[in-house]
């Protein structure tokens, strides 16, 4: 029970289940010291839960007589949404949340009617979501710190290690968090580079909230910015292709990670960078719609080589 949020919720459950408990009993049940217990009691009070404190050597705590949290009530659609959310959360790479997911599921099932409980259990036992596997361990503390700073419009100082193992200190206006291809990113305004930047959370060594605040652009989309950033990484060759299809179909077939898609009349322009024209030609070769290679000419040669290879394989198959 290392998660403070889980401990606070457990404290509330203990106070609801027992008419009165001493500070010593509560601290032992939660595995914390008395000072931490008092801090958790204060957290409950700040949430509007009336806790009566009896001071003294044998002092303890009780909920105000008559206080009960209202029961959770779900309809079928809400129960499905919560169950799918818990399933999806298992794949987000936050190891500390694994026990919390199990306890959250158990608590929800305890307050569900029998029919909804059976549906939730059936979904948990039989359904699996094929989400991208976490490629780097997530840090719950860091994720919550950056989410809080984003919501509060609060600057953060980052101690960051890049892909070349170089360490820098950055001051960031965090605009949003994105989970993409198995990794967590934070996007925002970097004061060191004086530009928008995205940072992988698994490369952040330390993050410290600062007192300074900022204004977040109202139309900023962190996921779209991250996609553009990855597509424009300084790879060897710039590529531009006109795809004769609509935007949704282009993204569905090629994947948003490949580059930046821009509607162009009845077509879509794709701008990307790649270190391998052969690889890029293979991606184009299996598209179900027509396209025009605008640049570079060498990509046409790479695509022609793919056509020769496929023709050769087709002839071998016929024989």
TrEMBL record:
It holds the Pfam family WYL. It comes from the Bacteria. Keywords: Transcription, Transcription regulation. InterPro entries: ArsR-like_HTH, CBASS_pafABC_assoc_protein, DeoR_HTH, HTH_11, PafC-like, WCX_dom, WH-like_DNA-bd_sf, WH_DNA-bd_sf. The keyword Ligase does not apply. GO terms for molecular function: DNA-binding transcription factor activity. Residues 4-63 form the HTH deoR-type domain. The keyword Cell cycle does not apply. CDD domains: HTH_ARSR (cd00090). This is YafY family transcriptional regulator. The lineage of its organism: Bacteria, Pseudomonadati, Pseudomonadota, Gammaproteobacteria, Oceanospirillales.
């Amino acid at each position: 029970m290392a998660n403070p949020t889980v401990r606070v919720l457990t404290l509330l459950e203990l106070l609801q289940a027992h008419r009165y408990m001493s500070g010593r009993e509560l601290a032992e049940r939660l595995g914390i010291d008395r000072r931490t217990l008092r801090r958790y009691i204060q957290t409950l009070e700040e949430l509007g839960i009336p806790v009566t404190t009896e001071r003294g050597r044998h002092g303890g705590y009780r909920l105000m007589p008559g206080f009960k949290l209202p029961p959770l009530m779900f309809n079928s659609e809400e129960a499905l949404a919560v169950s799918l959310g818990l399933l999806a959360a298992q794949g987000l790479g936050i190891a500390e949340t694994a026990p919390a997911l199990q306890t959250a599921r158990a608590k929800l099932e305890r307050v569900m009617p029998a029919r909804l409980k059976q549906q939730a259990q059936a979904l948990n036992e039989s359904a699996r979501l094929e989400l991208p596997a976490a490629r780097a361990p997530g840090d719950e503390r860091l994720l919550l710190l950056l989410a809080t700073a984003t919501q509060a419009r609060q600057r953060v100082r980052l101690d960051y290690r890049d892909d070349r193992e170089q360490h820098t200190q950055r001051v960031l206006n965090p605009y949003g968090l994105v989970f993409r291809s198995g990794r967590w990113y934070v996007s925002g305004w970097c004061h060191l580079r004086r530009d928008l930047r995205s940072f992988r959370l698994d490369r952040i060594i330390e993050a410290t909230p600062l007192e300074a605040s900022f204004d977040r652009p109202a139309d900023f989309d962190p996921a779209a910015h991250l996609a553009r950033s990855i597509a424009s990484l300084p790879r060897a060759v710039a590529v531009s292709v006109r795809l004769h299809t609509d935007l949704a179909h282009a993204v569905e077939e090629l994947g948003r990670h490949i580059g930046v898609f821009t509607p162009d009349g009845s077509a879509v322009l794709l701008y990307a960078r790649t270190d391998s024209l052969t690889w890029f030609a293979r991606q184009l070769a299996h598209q179900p719609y027509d396209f025009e290679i605008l640049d570079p000419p060498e990509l046409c040669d790479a695509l022609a080589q793919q056509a020769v290879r496929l023709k050769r394989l087709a002839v071998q198959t016929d024989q």
